[in-house]
Amino acid sequence: MLKRVLLCLVAAAWVAGVGGAAEADSAARAKTMAGLWQGQYHYPNNKRPPVPFTLRITATGAANFDGAMSEPNTFGDKTSDVLTADAVGYADEKGFVTFLKKYDGTGGVDHVVIYRGRLVGRDRVEGTWTVPDSWSGRFEMRR
């Protein structure tokens, strides 16, 4: 499943980067995404309180970026107070942002979450997160 999700992200990033002006705009968007973001994700129907997170993004070329995420441990085993994850994603020329969060095993958590949102201005992203074949909710993050 992870390979399929990664292939979809790579294909979408390639499509977003096709064409001179579109590629330049996408690269500018990826650079715009670079930096430290603070956010929170919400569970469906408010089943649990919102979970705050931080995401440090580095632009990696064209429309692509990498990131490192951390959040309080609200659902893993109690071997760690914080859950950490790697992120990889892209920002297209229309302001859509998609990234994959892969928990690294801290606190016994190692699943994948897909985030899809829209860049609002230069300092806010709003959208939805999805655990494949499971559940989803909304998120927002700000610089």
Topology:
Blueprint: H1 2-16, H2 20-33, E1 35-41, E2 51-61, E3 64-72, E4 82-91, E5 96-103, E6 112-120, E7 124-130, E8 136-142
Antiparallel strand pairs: 1-2, 1-8, 2-3, 3-4, 4-5, 5-6, 6-7, 7-8
Q: Explain this structure to me?
A:
By secondary structure, this protein is an alpha+beta fold. The chain has a single domain (2-142), classed as Lipocalin (Beta Barrel), CATH 2.40.128. The chain is 20% helix and 48% strand. An eight-stranded antiparallel beta barrel has the order 1-2-3-4-5-6-7-8. The longest helix is centred in the N-terminal third of the chain and has 15 residues, at 2-16. The radius of gyration is 15 Å and the shape is globular.
Tags for this model:
143 residues; alpha+beta; Lipocalin; 8-stranded antiparallel beta barrel; 2 helices; 20% helix; globular; disordered N terminus
CATH architecture: Beta Barrel
**Taking Cα atoms only, what radius of gyration do you get, to the nearest Å?**
15 Å
What's the mean pLDDT score?
A: 85
State the CATH superfamily name: Quinohemoprotein amine dehydrogenase alpha subunit, domain 2
For the sheet with most strands, the description reads: 8 strands, antiparallel, barrel
Straight-line distance between termini: 31 Å
Work out the helicity level: 10-25%
Number of helices: 2
Total E-strand runs: 8
* DSSP strand content: over 45%
Total tally of structural domains: 1
Helix-strand pattern, N to C? Answer: HHEEEEEEEE
Kindly report the spatial arrangement of strands forming the biggest sheet: 1-2-3-4-5-6-7-8
The first-level CATH class is given as Mainly Beta
Which fold name is given in CATH as the topology? Lipocalin
**Broad structural category:** alpha+beta
Shape: globular
Low-confidence runs (pLDDT<50, min 5 residues)? 1-21
